[in-house]
Design a protein that fits this description.
Elements (H helix, E strand, L loop, with lengths): L1 E3 L7 E2 L6 E8 L8 E8 L3 E3 L7 E8 L2 E4 L2 E3 L3 E5 L8 E3 L7 E8 L10 H13 L3 E3 L2 E3 L5 E3 H10 L5 E2 L7 E4 L6 E2 L6 E9 L4 E8 L4 E5 L4 E8 L2 E3 L2 E3 L4 E4 L4 E6 L3 E8 L12 E2 L15
Antiparallel strand pairs: 1-24, 2-3, 3-4, 4-11, 5-10, 6-9, 6-11, 7-8, 9-16, 12-13, 13-14, 15-27, 17-18, 18-19, 19-26, 20-25, 21-24, 21-26, 22-23, 22-25
Helix pairs in contact: 1-2
Amino acid sequence: MKIVPFDDTNWKMDHPTGAIYFQHMLKGEPDSPDNFMLILGKQVGDFSMPRHRHNFDQIRFPVRGPMSIGRGIDLEEGQVGYFPEGLSYGPQEDLATPDQDRISLVLQFGGASGYGFMSIEQRRQAREELLAAGGKFVGPYYHRPDGKVQWGLNTIWEHVFGERLKYPRPRYKNVQVADTKRFNWLPVENAKGVDHKYMGAFSERGVWIEMVRLRAHAEWSSVDDRARRLAFVSSGTGSCDGAPVGAMTALQTDAGEELRLTASEPLELFLIGLPPVVVPKEESEEYDLEEIPGHKLPESQAA
């Protein structure tokens, strides 16, 4: 069991645009296909990102304010988005809101392809080494000493793993957006005062998304032998294994580990289930080696 409280003094600038501060909540095991990173992102300036994609899965949950996912579409508070590995999204344009921070919960994790997820520590070290080698990062791009320009994350991946980054061709054609307000609360069996909303499962890995609500003074004890579970307190207060939890606390239980919660006041959780990745015996040929096939770099950044 891991319990990580929210700390409003613990924001770190880790985004190449300089417009997003991160608070790192939970993380997995580097070099594992099951690796993951659960973070809170706080927008502190105007944010712009070209259309792009990743070789890992993402789940995004706006906590305060909307977030752009591209082409005039916003992910609003109360909605959750599943971004399949290999799916292009953007361009993202989010103007800063002077009277309110925009905060989103983001889970990035290895997808069913088995390609895994690069840890933030690996990413930071690679950036330092690439800068020391004479290159420079300009926004999301990396400018090599020989003048060539690459998408920055591709360069970092090649530096860390010694091979080209592969993009799985997406299993879904669009970002999957669920409006949590439109799902019904259903009672949890054998748990008085506890309800949940199930938003669905994705890919052959069976990653699932749900919400759990405990009424005041209700207790909930749960074990799942199949999967690691990550939970985020979206509202309310209570305790977990006797330790206090409040808004924006992150929780982790591994497969077979008991999650025990007691609500002091109505307590609501956003919960993600992560069954282990089963690496296919034969790698699929459904992948690309380019960030966006046929994409040309802006002339101002071309070598």
